[in-house]
Amino acid sequence: MNAVPPSELASKRVLILDDQTEVGALSMFFGQFEHGRPYEVMGASNRAEAVSALSRGRPDLIVLDPQMKELDGLQLLKQIRALDQTIPVIVVTGKQKTHEAVEVLKSGVFAYVPKPCDFTKLEHLVGLADAVNGGSA
After folding, report:
1. pTM score, whole prediction
2. What digits encode the pLDDT tens for the residues 37-51?
3. Which of these, 60, 43, 63, lies nearest to 112 by C-alpha position?
4. What are the structural domains, with CATH classification, of the chain?
């Protein structure tokens, strides 16, 4: 069996839901990951953008900040889980409240990461999410 060169592998769709400037930084960072395939990164900073992005098709991975000004990230996470429980979700948050962390973890997220985000750790988590989900993240 011949291996497919990384440049010919299908890109992974990543949806970043965050109302901070991290969307741009994370988008650029995903372009530098060395997982052997490109990432198509979509960003959303409010409910309308999130719904629009999700309507364009299932992402392979979601990076979510549950504390957004115009969007209740926890409520959106519950809605996403009602539609599809298999999409890996990595929660990245600057507000680390114990009760919130418990709620987030109960929803079946793949990982919970505090801000400021360590991009090297995030890269490893994305790779793990991909491996655990059979290459679909």
Report:
1. 0.82
2. 778 888 888 878 888
3. 63
4. 13-91+105-131 (3.40.50.2300)
